[in-house]
Amino acid sequence: MPEAMARAPDTIRSFEERLLDVSEGLPKRLRQCADYVAANKDRIAVSTVAEMADGAGVQPSAFMRFCQILGFSGFSEMQRLFRESYVGGWPDYSTRLHHLRETASGSPSALLAEFAEAGRISLEGLVQSVDSQALELAVEALAGAGVIHIVGLRRSFPVASYMVYAFEKMGVAAMLHSGVGKLDNHHAIREGDVLLAITFSPYSTETLDLVEQVSRRGIPVVAITDAVVNPLRKLDVLTLPVAEVDFGAFRSLSATLCLAIALSVAVGTARQRN
């Protein structure tokens, strides 16, 4: 088991780097903590250690041990990092949702307000989660592709199909890999092309298999995904992380579609310049 770090991360970026460094060597329970935190960083600032532990499926003591392995004295110190990072901008999400439930429990207008609030928080977090250099590299790779192959199944499918539609309107050659008839069409991906994979936890096996096949052939892969710690990082993949705040068991695509629109337009613009 990894030893506790001498110094706690002091930025969200260094926190993510530390999480990547230690996650592979963790035992099962602590790896559950790492996976849950990676996919739910938006919850750290507003949750208790008991709530985080429950989400990860472990005892609070195990979650506290996980915090210490990352270099923190405990959960409170880790939580303080996230609260300070969002000073002036972090909304009291739990309080607002509680108020909505009290004033208009279960009504369509309350649900609309709750989902709108979750979408707003997701959009604000998008600006901080996507590294500008990684975004530039992704645009460069996609703009230089002969054909952009796009795969996104289940919850990711609306994003993938939208991007193919946007590229078609801009005259950019793109192909949607939908898995219809259990056909992945990986032989259509040729040298000079680029694969754009969109997948979120729990990750689509079909998408991961296609990424692995293509990556082994030396074809560039750009991925839109939700967690810092995910199966794609073991492959040679350029990742653009995006986190969606959920309401109940439902997670929208507000931030993901925003990133998809920005990426599509940036690629179309770059191709016109070239």
UniProtKB/TrEMBL annotation:
<keyword id="KW-0804">Transcription</keyword>
<dbReference type="Pfam" id="PF01418">
    <property type="entry name" value="HTH_6"/>
</dbReference>
<dbReference type="Pfam" id="PF01380">
    <property type="entry name" value="SIS"/>
</dbReference>
<dbReference type="InterPro" id="IPR001347">
    <property type="entry name" value="SIS_dom"/>
</dbReference>
<dbReference type="InterPro" id="IPR009057">
    <property type="entry name" value="Homeodomain-like_sf"/>
</dbReference>
<dbReference type="GO" id="GO:0097367">
    <property type="term" value="F:carbohydrate derivative binding"/>
</dbReference>
<dbReference type="InterPro" id="IPR000281">
    <property type="entry name" value="HTH_RpiR"/>
</dbReference>
<dbReference type="GO" id="GO:1901135">
    <property type="term" value="P:carbohydrate derivative metabolic process"/>
</dbReference>
<feature type="domain" description="SIS">
    <location>
        <begin position="138"/>
        <end position="274"/>
    </location>
</feature>
<keyword id="KW-0238">DNA-binding</keyword>
<dbReference type="InterPro" id="IPR036388">
    <property type="entry name" value="WH-like_DNA-bd_sf"/>
</dbReference>
<dbReference type="InterPro" id="IPR046348">
    <property type="entry name" value="SIS_dom_sf"/>
</dbReference>
<protein>
    <submittedName>
        <fullName>RpiR family transcriptional regulator</fullName>
    </submittedName>
</protein>
<dbReference type="InterPro" id="IPR047640">
    <property type="entry name" value="RpiR-like"/>
</dbReference>
<feature type="domain" description="HTH rpiR-type">
    <location>
        <begin position="13"/>
        <end position="89"/>
    </location>
</feature>
<dbReference type="InterPro" id="IPR035472">
    <property type="entry name" value="RpiR-like_SIS"/>
</dbReference>
<dbReference type="GO" id="GO:0003677">
    <property type="term" value="F:DNA binding"/>
</dbReference>
<keyword id="KW-0805">Transcription regulation</keyword>
<dbReference type="GO" id="GO:0003700">
    <property type="term" value="F:DNA-binding transcription factor activity"/>
</dbReference>
